[in-house]
Description:
This protein is an alpha+beta fold. It has helices at about 70-80, 130-145; strands spanning about 20-35, 35, 40, 45-55, 85-90, 95-100, 105-110, 110-115, 120-125, 155-165, 165-174. It has a 6-stranded mixed beta sheet. Strands 6-7-8 form a 3-stranded antiparallel beta sheet, with no helix packed on it. Strands 2-3 form a two-stranded antiparallel sheet. Strand 2 (about 35) and strand 3 form a beta hairpin. The protein starts with 17 loop residues before the first strand and ends with a strand. The relative contact order is 0.19. Residues about 1-10 have low confidence and may be disordered.
Amino acid sequence: MRQPTLGARYHGGMEGSFRVTVERNRLRFAAAHMATFADDLEPLHGHNYDVMVEVEGELTPEAWVWDFGDLKRIVKAIADELDHKFLLQRNSRELAIVEGNDTWEVCYRERRYCFPKRDVAALPIDNTTAERLAEWFASRLREALAERGASNVRRLTVGIEEMPGQAGWYTVSV
């Protein structure tokens, strides 16, 4: 039986794909939000969000999809942008939002909130659901990997877990 040479691909006669995942542990952020649903606004509340990432693609010449350490650093840096912030759905169709010099004013019917800018992550999303946060996160991760020359990456999946057993996911082809 012929053995594959060092550096050669071993397929074993199967078609397949390669993926790496990083999740939880230090890949988390604590943030406040209030999502809109149908004809209502949730009360202001927060979560200790966990981030889960899957990167799928071809192997590099070193036989990996992407370095785990580098991927964790990228994901942690993005999560840190949201940590201990109020997550503002900047493109909300339901909220009246006014950007001041040093504050964000958010109104919904008779409710009015005023947040210091330094405490807000103003995101270009229409709602702060776990699904939209996962989509935003995947977009930022895609940009970061492209800046690092990740031409082998084919698909990204990001999960944002609000609490154990409750997560929103987004998958995008690259």
